[in-house]
Amino acid sequence: MLHDLITNWVLIIALCAWMVAQLVKLLVALARGKGLDLSFFISSGGMPSAHSAMVCALATAIAIKDGFGSAYFAIAVILALVVTYDAAGVRQSVGQQSVVLNRIILELKRKEPMIKIEADLRELMGHTPFEVYIGAALGIGVAWLWLFLAGLKF
Fold first, then answer.
1. How many CB atoms are closer than 10 A to CB 124?
2. How far is Cα 43 from Cα 95, in angstroms, rounded to an integer?
């Protein structure tokens, strides 16, 4: 079973796409002057979307392995559509609402210093459509590059 997992190229490619996207996210944060914050390597939100990269790499690897007409590819595409929609839609809205709620909490803190609020809500939850597109393109690119460099023949 362990051998099957560590030799499952489709799974490995999807996970590598996620790691590459998270590394790019860390580098983007560093370039934007946010310093070397390793929490960006495991956080959600930001540029690019690691979720989109992972599911698009998964769908691409399945398409190459099993073909565009396979049921596995259909499942992966539906999964990718749900994940990317969620990343750019629902989670982006949650992030925007967190910004507003944090402003309200700050306003309350300033007017009523006796109110103790423990922590701000996370504002960087979702992605802009651009971040999702870049993540998707990155995932597809990682899958094609991996398979090309490895010369894998399924």
1. 14
2. 13
